[in-house]
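Hi all, posting the design record for the shared folder.

TITLE: backbone redesign
STEP: 1 of 1
STRUCTURE INPUT:
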């Protein structure tokens, strides 16, 4: 075998391995093949709270930075299965049983470099309570140096955080209600 052909085959196999590794998600997420179609509605009533013996989880997406970059779709998984998705500044709710839970969010995308953006949180939920979580998406474009030799660089980040009740209620008022359907 010619050395150039061998090097090319090695490089191609490494690219395949890197792509396979990029789509591996944590156990708390869900199957990466699941995608969501998301619709949002403005000015919806605030969630009423959980049913008796249940826990209400409010999942919020906020978008910071570039307003002309479009809207990101973030999927939320809990305990190994996707529970829904948001698009842009929106929220949805799910009800779960009390106990220990593992929450995941990722950027729904066909681009491998965005699939590596994952947020994770574990928490213990008590019956009758409402918990607020925020996936904060930031898309910021800046120049990487001074002068005419600089390039525009776009940084994309995704962070998942638990919010206080007051902060969560406020963010819900600022957001659209999201409904999602898996494809």
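Okay, here is what came back for every position:
SEQUENCE:
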């Amino acid at each position: 075998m010619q050395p150039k052909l061998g090097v090319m085959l090695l490089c191609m196999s490494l690219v395949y391995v890197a792509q396979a590794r990029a789509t591996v998600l944590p156990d708390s997420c869900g199957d990466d093949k699941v995608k969501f179609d998301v619709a949002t509605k403005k000015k919806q009533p605030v969630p009423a709270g959980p049913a008796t013996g249940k826990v209400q989880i409010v999942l919020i997406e906020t978008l910071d930075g570039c307003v002309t970059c479009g809207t990101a779709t973030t999927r939320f998984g809990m305990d190994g299965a996707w529970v829904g998705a948001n698009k842009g500044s929106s929220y949805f709710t799910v009800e779960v049983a009390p106990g220990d839970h593992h929450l995941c969010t990722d950027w729904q995308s066909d681009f491998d470099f965005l699939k590596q953006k994952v947020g994770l949180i574990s928490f213990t939920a008590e019956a009758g309570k409402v918990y607020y979580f925020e996936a904060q998406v930031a898309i910021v474009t800046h120049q990487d140096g001074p002068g005419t030799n600089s390039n525009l660089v776009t940084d994309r980040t995704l962070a998942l955080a638990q919010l206080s009740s007051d902060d969560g209620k406020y963010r819900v008022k600022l957001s659209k209600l999201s409904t999602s359907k898996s494809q």
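COMMENT: Helices lie at 3-22, 112-115, 165-174.
Let me know if anyone wants the other runs.
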